[in-house]
Amino acid sequence: MEKITIKELIEFREKSGVRKKNFANKLKTKKPKEKVSTDEENGGGDYWVSCTSCIQRVFKSGSKDEYDDKIEDLQARYQNAQLKHVKDRHQSNIDILMRFKDFELDQFKPHVDLRYEKISRQSMVVPVDGIPLYVAPGVLFSFEQNGKQHLGAVWLTPKKGGYTKDELGMFCEMLYRFMVKNYSDTYQISEEYCVAIDTFNARSVRYTELVSGNIPYLIDSTLKELNQV
User: Fold this and answer.
1) pLDDT tens readout for residues 74-111
2) What is the pTM of this model?
3) Pairing label, strands 139-145, 148-156
4) 113 exposed, middle or buried (CB, 10 Å; 0-12, 13-18, 19+)?
5) Domain boundaries, the chain
6) Three-state DSSP class for 39?
7) Helices (H), ranges, the chain
8) CA–CA distance, 159 with 41 (Å, rounded to integer)
């Protein structure tokens, strides 16, 4: 089975009746996507890559000046673009960066020396109940606390209109499972610094919110329903 994204699981949850069954069959039989052009004039590439990559850099550097630099760059791209959908893309990325200028990313990392870890593509597929789920953390970092090595991560999840807190919790739940599966032999996995951020609404969920019961665990029940449809 081809890997399934958390966004697709959320789409599955939103459907009902025949549409739900058809979407489930589509997920179970999906094939790998062909590599598309990254030429923005032809609509290729990641729609949100400009703002996502910038936010990740600010998270690491702590310098919000990078927002202004990227916004200026995107404004120039907007002026030079000929096609409406390309202009819309640049404007959408600009809008998110403008919102993040007042968003404190430092709250999602401890105030100690951090070591940023590389993420292998092979580790980004996490099987759950026989279904390969795709997990794509933006930032993975380790730090020492109370004499132990800990691991934290942030997953930026852009989508037009954004996600509800419960939906965002699904990203956070899988982020934690990703860290446990791939790194628990070496690190203490941090519940506090396992964070999913909806960049469209500048909204966040920590794994501690799932542990406390404020946000429901939805992955297992969703996969059970997917397998039964």
Assistant:
1) 999 999 999 999 999 999 999 999 999 999 999 999 99
2) 0.93
3) antiparallel
4) exposed
5) 4-34+107-228, 40-103
6) coil
7) 6-14, 17-29, 49-61, 65-80, 84-100, 165-183, 207-211, 219-228
8) 21
Residue 217 tokens read as 């665990």
Closest CA to 199 of 164, 141, 159, 139: 159
Whose tokens are 């795709």? That residue is: 134
- Of 58, 89, 53, residue with least CA distance to 74: 89
Q: How far apart are CA 123 and CA 136, in angstroms?
A: 9
Cβ(169)–Cβ(196) below 8 Å: yes
DSSP 33: P
Question: Which residue, chain included where needed, has tokens 């628990």?
Answer: 184
Report d(CA 65, CA 61) in Å as an integer.
10
Span 162-188, pLDDT tens digits: 999 999 999 999 999 999 999 999 999
80 burial via Cβ count (<10 Å: 0-12, 13-18, 19+): exposed
**Of 190, 194, 127, 200, the residue nearest 157 (C-alpha):** 200
Q: Which of 198, 207, 177, 153 lies closest to 7 in space, CA to CA?
A: 198
**Contact (Cβ atoms closer than 8 angstroms) between residue 157 and residue 120:** no
